[in-house]
Amino acid sequence: MGEQVAAIGNPFGLSGSMTSGIVSQLGRLMYSPDPGFSIPDVIQTDAAINPGNSGGPLLNMKGEVIGINTAIRSSTGEFTGVGFAVPSNTIKKIVPSLIEEGKYHHPWMGITGIDIDPDLAKIRERVNAKGFLVVTVIDGHPADDAGLKGVSKTVEIDGKEYPIDGDIIISVDGKEVRKINDLLVHLQREKAVGDEMILGVMRDGDLIHLTLTLGERPDLQ
To answer: φ, ψ for residue 214 (rounded to 5)?
Structure first.
């Protein structure tokens, strides 16, 4: 973090414009404004990015491309100091498949869930608010084949429902999972369709390990 960077693009049709800033954070999870899949492991920068910058390079001070400018966080649609770029390592992984096949095969687990927050940690009698709670396991997909269990029981406390069962993923291939972003970044950086990964799972107070073989993420249609 803190590395100086420059963004090049065509903001508002002003071709070849360059802006500068720093890397504000790495490994961000960028949520899609439309229903769909989020983009993990993106670079956050305060270099000015506006409509027309998307697809342009984010460069370090050596002139090396470290990312492709993708989106901004803004309530107005214009630059507010928070921009995002897909890292060059992700581009190198995805582009050959796009050139050869016209698409990229994203690895897929087949679950939905929520991060463990302090309230849920207390209810589930966990010391730390860490881990990813599996809420739904999609039938016939990798998580179902691996034996992961979703939520089937809830309890109401102060007018709010809390899940009291369901597997909590706390590690993947020996790496700690504090929240969903840790899991998605591992998938993005290290895994491909057909790869196996070992999940450390808390179930009914016991730690178990499950082997999951990744499938291909379905298209949203």
So the answer is: -70, 135
- The tens digit of pLDDT for each residue in 14-26 reads 988 999 999 999 9
H-type helices in the chain, by residue range?
Answer: 88-101, 118-123, 142-146, 180-190
Residues 118 and 94 in one domain: no
- Report the chain's terminal Cα–Cα distance, integer Å: 38
Model pTM score: 0.83
- Tokens read off for 149: 């269990």
- Looking at the structure, tell me whether residues 193 and 96 fall in a common domain: no
Give the range of the structural domain holding residue 117, as residue numbers without chain letter: 107-216
State the Cα–Cα distance between residues 141 and 132, nearest whole angstrom: 18
User: Which pLDDT tens digit goes with each residue over 147-158?
Assistant: 999 999 999 998
Q: Which residues of 33-71 are buried (b: 16+ CB within 10 A; e: fewer)?
A: eeeeeebbbbbbbbbbbbebbbebbbbeeeeeebbbbbb
Task: In whole angstroms, give the CA distance from residue 132 to residue 120.
Answer: 11
